[in-house]
Amino acid sequence: MSLLPGIAALALVNITAPFTGVGLPVSRMTLSASALLGIPGVTAMLVIQALF
Questions:
Q1: CA distance 49 to 1
Q2: What string of DSSP letters covers 1-52?
Q3: Which partner for 38 in 6, 10, 25, 47 could form a disulfide, CB atoms 3.0-4.6 Å apart?
Q4: Burial of 46 (0-12, 13-18, 19+ CB in 10 A)
Q5: Euclidean distance between CA atoms 38 and 33, whole angstroms
Q6: What whole-number distance in Å separates Cα of residue 23 and Cα of residue 11?
Q7: Within 13 Å and on the Cβ side, how many CA atoms surround 33?
Q8: pLDDT (tens digit, 9 = 90+) per residue, 1-49?
Q9: Which residues contact 22 (CB under 8 A, 6 or more apart)?
Q10: pLDDT of residue 3
Q11: Which of 51, 15, 12, 10 is nearest to 34 (CA)?
Q12: Which residues of 2-41 are buried (b: 16+ CB within 10 A; e: fewer)?
């Protein structure tokens, strides 16, 4: 059930990237994490990117 919301969250982050300055690269790892973990996975990737 978390497949579609996770992919949609990743897409939303990348669509709004020009306005917010925050984006995630689309790769196998980010697609897999967003598909398996859903919205919390996308949020975790954004937090990790902000910290490092």
A1: 25
A2: --HHHHHHHHHHHHHSHHHHS-----SHHHHHHHHHH-HHHHHHHHHHHHH-
A3: 6
A4: middle
A5: 7
A6: 10
A7: 16
A8: 678 999 999 999 999 999 999 999 999 999 999 999 999 999 999 999 9
A9: 13, 16, 46, 49, 50
A10: 87
A11: 10
A12: eeeebeebbeebeeeeeeeeeebeeeeebeebbbeebeeb
- The tokens describing 51, both together, are 């910290």
With vertex at residue 25, the alpha carbon angle to CA 36 and CA 43, rounded to the nearest 5 degrees, is: 50
Could you tell me the two tokens for 38? 């859903």
